[in-house]
Specification:
- Helix 1 crosses helix 2.
- The N and C termini lie far apart (about 35 Å).
- By secondary structure, the chain is α+β, with helices and mostly antiparallel strands.
- It has one domain: Aminopeptidase (3-Layer(aba) Sandwich).
- A hairpin with a 2-residue loop joins strand 2 and strand 3.
Length: about 170
Amino acid sequence: MIDDRETGILLICTAVPAEAETIADLHLRARSTYYPDGVPQGDIDWQAAWRGSIERTDAHVLCAVEKGSIVGIASFRTPDGAGADTVKLFQFHVDPGRWRSGIGRALHAACVEQWRADRRRAAVLDVHVDNKRAQAFYAREGWLPDPQTPPAAGDHHLYLRYTVPGETPGE
């Protein structure tokens, strides 16, 4: 992990496998805020899942680091069945104690920068219908409902699409 205790500057860096436990803890704390009855219990080992995401060669996991602590995370890759110009944002979380401090905007900007470098034109994500705070954040960042993926009956997610702005490098 990058140690920024001296500067106090928010840094965005690529996650390493040794950070999987810290990332999984932040993920669960953030998710627990929008499930009315708490995060659904399941047999998912989130630490192992995050380690797997970090180690994937076709994925990116970015961390926002402030004063030596991970305060935000984003995970994205090309989704199965999608074209090479589309990326899916699978996870995007900011430590609940740090909401509305600019971390999410900085982390989102880093994602967009990487998508442009990777020649992506569009990004997609699904967001839980009860997560109104995240929906408002994504709307402020320019995400719109995805007309190609309307929610199915009983689905608990909204599907959003983002057009990566500007010229794609190398064109």
